[in-house]
Structures are given as C-alpha cells and as structure tokens.
Amino acid sequence: MSINFKNSWKKQLSIFLALPMLSFAGFAYGNAVTNANVVAVGSYGDGSINVILDATVLEAGCNAARFDIPANHPNLKSILAMALTAKSAGTPLRIFTTGCITTTFQSGTNSFPTIDTTSNGAVSVR
Question: Who contacts 87 (Cβ-Cβ below 8 Å, separation ≥6)?
C-alpha cells in the first residue's frame, strides 16, 4: 500500500480553511435568535401585529421584549397563529429576527425587531 503525499497537503489545507467558514454558517439564518414565551399579542389599526415576549430580542439597533410584523407580510396570519398557539399552550416560540421596523403609535415612533420576507427570518413553536 502506498500513500500519495503529493495531494494530502491540499486536502488538509482545504479542510483547515473550510472549518472557520462552517462555524459562521449558523449565523446566516437570522440576526437574532430568541427563545421566549408569549406574554401578549396585539394588532394595530393598519393590520400589523406585535408579539410581546418574556425575553428581550437582541436585534442590532432595536432590542425589545417583542417583535412586530407589518400588515403586508405574506406570513402574517401564520405568525399570528403560531404566537396565539404558543400563548394558549404555554410553550415558547423560537424567533429568528432579521432587522428593525419603525412603528408609530400614540406613544410616538419606536423601532422593534421584525422578521422580513426572506428565508432568514422565522418563527416556530417549541
């Protein structure tokens, strides 16, 4: 049996270089990942919803114990259904937020975490 040392360094180098890239691959799914229980669910007059949580969503620029979904989001009804299911069952949500949304209400203008329409944002019942 002979060992080919000619190409083995190339394999080792490619594995060595691939490992750091794989370690960062998990961060591509969403900016902030939060496991939290639903405290309340609300709706604004424009049809957007907010989900109040028992934990802070750490989204850059808009940390809050809630996330908001705009009225024109294609998955608004399914996100609302999951939030209400989690609330009534007492099970946590796993939320992958992807940025901030600015909401204007009686108390003024605020930014809250949100889930965009890409596959990077997600909600699941735990």
Answer: 38, 39, 40, 41
